[in-house]
Fold these 3 entries.
Entry 1:
Amino acid sequence: MDKNSMVSFAEALQAVAAIGTATSSLIQMLDSGRQSDGALREKLADMQLQVATLKTHMAELVDENLELRLEMRQSKSLPHLDRQGELYFDREGDGPFCSHCYEKGTCTRCISFSDDIRKYGNADFKCPACKTVYCLPRDDFHEGK
């Protein structure tokens, strides 16, 4: 979910307040007994629309919350890696891991030799997740175990 489509908590609270106001107005209309059925139906339709809007806002907030929890869980489970040149390796020398994914907090696996880019005596790697390609001279590459 991108930042432009996320609903704020304040917007959800505004929707709740609007429903509260509409409910109070509807109760006053019923108490006065002077309103026509058409006016009551219109108020009820407005409330239904506000409830639907609130449900949408709440669903977006729940989705955002789940995404943030998942990101937190993933970032806590990432291994500690040391940067060597353009790439990351773990303390045992295993790797390489994609710099782009690791810095975003989504690194979960080693990158591998690119099948379509082996040439010129370089160690070429392609991240399977983000598709970033790394082209390193062989003497810059520290092969893992």
Entry 2:
Amino acid sequence: EAIVDERDLRQVDDTEALRPTVRAVLDDHPDEVARYRDGKKSLVGFFMGQVMEETNGAANPELARELLQDELDA
């Protein structure tokens, strides 16, 4: 656990902590959001990559995907 803390390797698995990052990624890529909503569902992988990049890989992937799909399908 000390190594995890020392290297800041904790996974972000708090919905409320991750939601602003997800929204910021979507706000930064309106063209891709429009393409996703027009049927290009494979863009969820692009958005996942952006979220992981923004969190330095610390986002819980399952939670990030769930939040992305909630926002994209809203």
Entry 3:
Amino acid sequence: MVAREMRLDIVGFMALAVMSALGGGMIRDTLLQMGPPIALTNPFYLPGAFAGALIAFFLRLSGRWWNRLLIVADAFVLGAWTATGVVKALSGGFGILPAVLMGVITAVGGGMIRDVAVGRIPSIFGGNTLYATASIIASVPAVVLWHLGYPTFATAAATVVGGAIAIAARRYRWRLPVNDGYSLGTSFHRLHDRTRSRSYPKFLRVRPSPPGAGRGMGRSHRGLWSRRGSAGSAGSAGTAGSTED
């Protein structure tokens, strides 16, 4: 869909398909150093990615129900890739945190490479519904069940949990909060200002004057004094006139 939005040719479709589908697993296998990437040794991975690119190029897959199907399929693929990365890292003797990291990279790494390739900020960095977070949560049952000796159930549980969370996030628009100028310093200053304003009694608090209050008051006083001055000068002029007479 991204390739169609960017109006790419067939080469662009195939390149983005390989990046999206296999990029995360290739990064994982390169980091784990457990042999060549499985995407290069398995005879079905690359042909499957190319077949998907051809289908997306020649068929315009759109519509309400098709979009829903893509959302559901992508959600459960997210959980399955997470489980694959977690189980492979744990089987290689790595700890829990590296296993969770490998699971997340397997699930979202390909999408990150795709977004960077087309000049976009990766969608998992903000402004999108929960995706990488769903992968992190899905890795928890995978780790627990693998340590209990049930690697098959670990894969199934992570697939279901990750898919359910990703679908619910799209349905209810769950998002993580973004940092809009927040810092501990600004929070401390705001709390300090509120505490200081509440520490004084109400009758001692200085309320800000409405806009233009001082200017209007100044004009009224100047007008009053000017009227008084004009009256006084008129009176003195009258007195002077009577004296001259």
